[in-house]
What we know:
This protein is an alpha/beta fold. It folds into two domains: 2-85 and 113-215, 3-Layer(aba) Sandwich (Rossmann fold); 228-327, Orthogonal Bundle (Helicase, Ruva Protein, domain 3). The chain is 48% helix and 15% strand. It is built from 14 helices and eleven strands. The strands form four sheets. Strands 2-5-8-1-9 form a five-stranded parallel beta sheet. A hairpin with a 2-residue loop joins strand 6 (140-143) and strand 7. Helix 10 crosses helix 11 (265-281), helix 11 packs across helix 12 and helix 12 packs antiparallel against helix 14 (317-327). The longest helix is centred in the C-terminal third of the chain and has 17 residues, at 265-281. The chain is globular. The two termini are 20 Å apart. The model has no long low-confidence stretch (mean pLDDT 86).
Amino acid sequence: MEQNINVNEINELVRKESAFVDALKFEINKVIVGQDQMIDRLLIGLLGKGHILLEGVPGLAKTLAINTLAKAINAKFSRIQFTPDLLPADVIGTLIYNVQENKFEVRKGPIFANLVLADEINRAPAKVQSALLEAMQERQVTIGDKTFKLEEPFLVMATQNPVEQEGTYPLPEAQVDRFMLKTIIDYPTQKEELEILRRNMKENFMQVNPVTTTKQILDAREVVKKIYIDPKIEQYILDIVFATRYPERYGLEELKPLINFGASPRASINLAIASKAYAFLNKRGFVIPEDVRAMVYDVLRHRIGLTYEAEAENVTTEDIIEKIVNTVEVP
């Protein structure tokens, strides 16, 4: 009974604290047509203190979405276009010699923002990628002998173009694992594209007004942590992740030759956090299996390594996740 009272309290708290979500989505939708999944994933990353890897062809409003979100929460936004000649200093900053003062001064790079767009991250060499990923993981940057904490909320949305692979540096698995979610975005529907077409012909774009603050986002993060997750749901999350490592234990022997390596412990952590954030967006103080199922593809698709056999048979990580989700018992 004690537990019920607590869950009811959390439910009430979530309802109160998540009131800004509708206003925020409404504000973003003044500029962005469709792409609800991308907007939801951005909010989940923001509430779950994670980063997002977006994959989609150019022109799907990726830059516009994160820029609009930054305006709507009154946060600082910066965009880094990753190119083959980019240097780590172009991302994190460097020491500049001041002739008048006769000393070195710190010049901070574009990473010092709340929302950072790393456009076409796979176009830059490994050194630059690792500088960015270190900042993402440690949430701090060292320039010379000084270490600077990055201001919270801090979210990196990195994009990859799935089509053009010439002259790119694919992200190593260990680095990709640091992204909480990998989201695939697709073309808009005909109806949505007609609306996009009409808005662009008029060229009188709606102004985005700040409807919440970064402080409110940070407060909401604390509420997300309090969302109740039942031990049965925790076990469900572990079963899904363990099925990627030991499929034979779950009656999925046919997957064994297709999986090179399974998801890391970061997958379990991120699936639990993302499910809590998803419950928060749905104004619920507890996690249900549907929350886990809604987030499982985004959390796992970049964390499962495929064998040559899987690639030869055109099996994707999505196919593997689907089989696991359809086999593992739902609590």
